[in-house]
Amino acid sequence: MNLKELDPDSSPQAAYGALVRQWREDRGWKQDELAGRMEYSSTHLSSIETGRKLPTLRFARNADQALRTEGLFERKWREMRQGSLLEGFPQYVEYEARAEELRLYQIGIVPGLLQTPAYARVLAESAVRRGDIDAEQAVERVEFLAERQVALVRDRPPTVMAVMDESCIRRIVGGPLVMDEQLGALLRFAELPNTVLQIAPFTLGERRPFNLPINLLTLPDRSLVLYAESQTQGHMDRESTAVPQMLRNYHQLQAEALSQADSVAMIEQVRKGIL
């Protein structure tokens, strides 16, 4: 792809690449000179400038340092990253950080907010092997999750109610050691004064009200935020009549799920059989 073929309006990453190229040319530098200053290959830099490759946070920070742009490329990277997330998720995360109550329901894997770093890394590395993301993006994904988890340990932490399908604790992720650590973290989570942890057992059958993961937030003004997603789509909702109905369904799920004591006992039993 040559200069005249690159359309900055064709995609966010093309616009990002064009901005890098503009700043480089304004400095009078060739690609190999900027690449050397950023500790990247000229081939990698060319791929960014022509929109063929997504930049990473490390790339953005190195560009800011080399070009002395005072955080410009990191800010643009964060804007682009938000644009690449599922629809509604960036807005949801903003609400999540200040919610007073969080109600979580997950199927298949432990909810992100409750994942250990090792467990989260295994999931991210699996996405790398599938070709969904590259290695640096995997690191960023884990770091982003850690940023979200800070909300759980702020000065006035929210009340967190988590209901997990039984598959979340029986599906081995990362092998015995990673899973043992993750289950131990869930047990410690259940001991906190501001948390409730429940397992929705397989025997719940058709009485399970949700077929997809959902998050429900209660904000300081007592309004509700619903976030639900599939493999490829996310949806955030605040206003519709569906939100109170989902809250009622969540209450029904909690009533049908195992008590926290029985859930802890199940997790302990599963944990004993792992190692």
UniProtKB/TrEMBL annotation:
InterPro entries linked to this entry: Cro/C1-type_HTH, DUF5753, Lambda_DNA-bd_dom_sf
UniProt xrefs under PROSITE patterns: HTH_CROC1
Domain of life: Bacteria
Domain HTH cro/C1-type intervals: 20-73
A molecular-function term among this protein's GO annotations: DNA binding
Annotated Gene3D superfamilies: lambda repressor-like DNA-binding domains
Pfam name, any one: DUF5753
Name recorded for this polypeptide: Transcriptional regulator
The organism of origin for this protein: Streptomyces lonarensis
